[in-house]
């Protein structure tokens, strides 16, 4: 069940860009999309936590101290600043470019996380990871330079890279608190923080236009329920059964789903060069998630599922990043 749950989660996340395209066609603005998505997701996660009190506690065998006010404030700030900004960049890019190309550009974030972790001294660079990073860089260039059948938009590409960079910073900050809060609690706080920022922004700018066609509400519900709440819950359920490295590798199914759905429903296509580049990026991401046995740091051994509470962001991003 673990791998199946991870794949279901990846499919739900992968469908989000498609739902967003349909929402835009129904007259939904990016501001309305983001506000409704995070507000509805925060409310639904709150209901889930009320109905399932066990999700508010640490898993058996885990030792999470009672979170301090600083930890809770950091979790809310992750949503209010980091996740709200990342989502804003992502959905702004989605208005300008194809969903398939956007998904491949965004999925450079695991590579960026690894590079940043090495530079910050949180991870070490091995020959295998060096080769994976070089392959990912080459794949990214192929994706961008091989614009054949895809409508390439430079500003959209910059926004997409901005979303990947913002997501990288978000994950590195989340890496400091992810082991101190139960995953669903952390997700609920992040969604609440993002909804608060967007709600405040709407109040200061005269509100958000919610007067769009009924299909727009349907696609917004799909984004909030399927591509946010259901995707997150199935991911964490799969994570508990497979461990972080396996869950991260299976998550590379996400841009594959986006590309396939974009071809089926939106008529989008990637050139052969871009498909080859995307394959290089996704393969590199999978390689980077394989945690070597033994010591991750001089501080001691970390093996198997213990990596969830360990020190390597490129595996713990599976718990912090998929919100």
From TrEMBL:
Q: Which SUPFAM superfamilies match?
A: Multidrug resistance efflux transporter EmrE
Chain spans, region Disordered: 296-323
Q: Does the keyword Repressor apply?
A: no
* A Pfam family the protein falls into: EamA
**Membrane topology reported for the UniProt record:** Multi-pass membrane protein
Keywords for this entry? Cell membrane, Membrane, Transmembrane, Transmembrane helix
The UniProt record lists the EamA domain at: 2-144, 156-288
Q: Which InterPro entries match?
A: Diverse_Substrate_Transporter (IPR051258), EamA_dom (IPR000620), EmrE-like (IPR037185)
Q: Which GO terms describe its cellular component?
A: plasma membrane
Q: Where are the transmembrane segments?
A: 33-51, 71-94, 100-120, 132-152, 158-178, 185-205, 217-239
Q: What is its main location?
A: membrane
Per UniProt, subcellular location reads as: Cell membrane
Similarity annotation? Belongs to the EamA transporter family.
This protein is called EamA domain-containing membrane protein RarD
Q: Which organism is it from?
A: Micromonospora chersina
């Amino acid at each position: 069940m673990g791998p199946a749950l991870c794949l279901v989660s990846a499919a739900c996340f992968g469908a989000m860009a498609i739902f967003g395209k349909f929402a835009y066609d129904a007259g939904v603005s990016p501001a309305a999309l983001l506000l409704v998505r995070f507000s509805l997701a925060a409310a639904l996660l709150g209901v889930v936590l009320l109905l399932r009190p066990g999700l508010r506690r640490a898993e058996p065998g885990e030792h999470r101290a009672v979170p301090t006010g600083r930890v809770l404030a950091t979790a809310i700030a992750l949503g209010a600043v980091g996740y709200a900004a990342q989502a804003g960049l992502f959905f702004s890019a989605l208005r300008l470019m194809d969903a398939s190309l956007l998904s491949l550009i965004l999925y450079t974030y695991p590579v960026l996380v690894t590079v940043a972790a090495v530079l910050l001294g949180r991870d070490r660079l091995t020959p295998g990871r060096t080769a994976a990073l070089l392959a990912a860089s080459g794949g990214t260039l192929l994706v961008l330079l091989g614009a054949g059948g895809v409508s390439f938009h430079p500003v959209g590409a910059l926004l997409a890279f901005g979303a990947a960079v913002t997501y990288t910073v978000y994950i590195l900050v989340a890496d400091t608190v992810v082991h101190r809060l139960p995953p669903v609690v952390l997700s609920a706080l992040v969604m609440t923080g993002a909804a608060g920022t967007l709600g405040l922004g709407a109040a200061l700018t005269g509100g958000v236009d919610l007067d769009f066609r009924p299909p727009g509400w349907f696609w917004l519900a799909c984004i909030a329920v399927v591509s946010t709440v259901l995707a997150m819950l199935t991911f964490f359920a799969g994570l508990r059964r497979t461990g972080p490295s396996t869950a991260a590798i299976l998550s590379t199914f996400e841009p594959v789903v986006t590309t396939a759905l974009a071809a089926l429903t939106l008529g989008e296509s990637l050139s052969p060069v871009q498909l080859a580049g995307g394959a290089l990026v996704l393969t590199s991401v999978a390689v980077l998630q394989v945690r070597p046995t033994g010591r991750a740091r001089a501080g001691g051994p970390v093996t198997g599922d213990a990596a969830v509470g360990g020190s390597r962001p490129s595996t713990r991003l599976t718990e912090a990043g998929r919100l």
